[in-house]
Amino acid sequence: MKRFFNTRERLVPEALEGLLRSPAGKDLCRLDGYPDIKVVLRRDWDRGAGKVAVISGGGSGHEPAHAGFVGRGMLTAAVCGSLFASPGVDAILAGILAVTGEAGCLLVVKNYTGDRLNFGLAAEQARALGLKVEMVIVGDDISLPGHRQARGIAGTVLVHKAAGHMAESGASLDRVAAFAGGVAARTRSIGLSLSDCDTYDEEHASRLAADEGELGLGIHGEPGAQRIALADAGALMALAADALLETLPEGDARYALMLNNLGTTPVIEMSLLLEAFAGSALARKVALVAGPAPFMTALDMNGFSLTLVELTGEIAAALQADVGPTAWTGMAPWQEPVVIPVPALPDIFAAEPSNNPALRDAVQRGAKALLENEEALNALDARIGDGDAGSTFAETARVIDGALDRLPLADPQALMQTLGRLLARHAGGSSGALLSILFATAGRSTQERWQAALLEGIAAMQGYGGAREGDRTMLDALIPAVRALDEGAAWADIVRVARGGADATARMGKAEAGRASYIPEGQLDNVPDPGAEAIARLFEALVPGK
User: Fold this and answer.
1) Which residues are tagged catalytic?
2) pTM for the full predicted model
3) Average pLDDT, 10 consecutive residues per value, the chain (546 residues)
4) Dihedral sign, CA of 531, 535, 540, 541?
5) What distance in Å separates the CA atoms of residue 491 and residue 543, rounded to the nearest whole number?
6) Structural domains of the chain sorted by starting position, each given as residue range(s) with its CATH number in brackets
7) Dihedral (C-alpha) 355, 357, 361, 362: value to the nearest 10 degrees?
């Protein structure tokens, strides 16, 4: 897999330096101790202000955790290890010494052996130096029932939030630790992924087949509790949500949900997954939601995790309180989407329908031609674009053909106005928009002849679209055809110039407009523009009596 990095050893320090240079790091600093001591802390922190410090950390590769949550209302410092490796005792002790005053500090630790040991040893050394230190261990993973050591995963971030809020309020160390521990005890999480993660291993090979995913996984690339078959998003979300639901005690308790991106799941899919969650039985118990967002990732894992925390009034207030770190995206009430009425839009079919048998026949033949050529035009477009030109023209044909009985076919000006509104409402892609502009402009024209009005429409297309004849677009077929139409040429000549314009695009070495303009010269050789080809085939189908 292609990755952006210099060396694996320098990855974490260089990433932390980048964080400190970014807007998210404007209020942060670090201890001078690279490479062994990688501690990020609040730049505004005053040990003498009488507030408890909250420190967390662990292996890197989970960004934005942990350094991304350092700031007012959350962590005072984050101690960062190497990739998926606990930081050493000296690094943790340095972090404790840097931020701990008389009020003491709380360590929030994920339940992994290395983290428990190293943070625990550092806490003992700090206590021996006279500092007050408490530790809360988070084990929120529910995927291995009966296991004595549940893993600490994304729910740790909610404990950061709760502890940070309580510490910011000026509470004592005992109070902060008790509150954080209570939140940890009420928190449970489960993850689902369609991939494992690659720890910058040149020999990496996925353990999952193309049709497999995993349910109940940690954040270090370890195998999930179950292999699962791929399914649609709703079914996969139901697996995760139902697994959480089964662990909840009976009663009417309300919960906060955190939907976490485990690494590389696209933003649009994460939003879709939240909508899928809304259809689950568990959603009826949710009162607050955070995300979807990356909170605790696992490098490039393509998956998500769900975290629930049982709410009290105090916990709800802590989770909703404003904080400094921008990685915490906030928590808001769970609600139905707000929908407001669509403003009144122009009536597409404002003109009375009328018939023109010859024109109706021509429209049907043109629509049939575009539909029959959908796949061929898509294949042509795939060579130079995104492969949807045929589908876009076919959709335009379906829209017009489906509205034939409502069109004023006997009134050219009203017909063009109606087509302009119809395509604006229903046709897609740039070609649909351009054709809508053509007809809308022609329909407003003061020209007595509809052929001349179409030329005005083409001028509007050029103005909005930015293309000219010779730029290797559909205009190379459309302009000469409409020009010949305006001049009263025979249909055979109109078809000939349309076909000639389309064929000429295959000999144009460089496109000057449209998506093909981004294709390097040489890759377009002998490939006609799909839009021009669609126009040529359309005019060929419109030959009277064909």
Assistant:
1) 220
2) 0.84
3) 88 97 97 96 96 98 98 98 96 98 98 96 98 98 87 97 98 98 98 94 88 94 92 97 96 97 98 98 98 97 98 98 97 96 92 94 92 92 80 92 94 94 85 91 93 94 88 91 94 94 85 63 76 92 78
4) positive
5) 6
6) 8-197+214-333 (3.40.50.10440), 357-542 (1.25.40.340)
7) -80
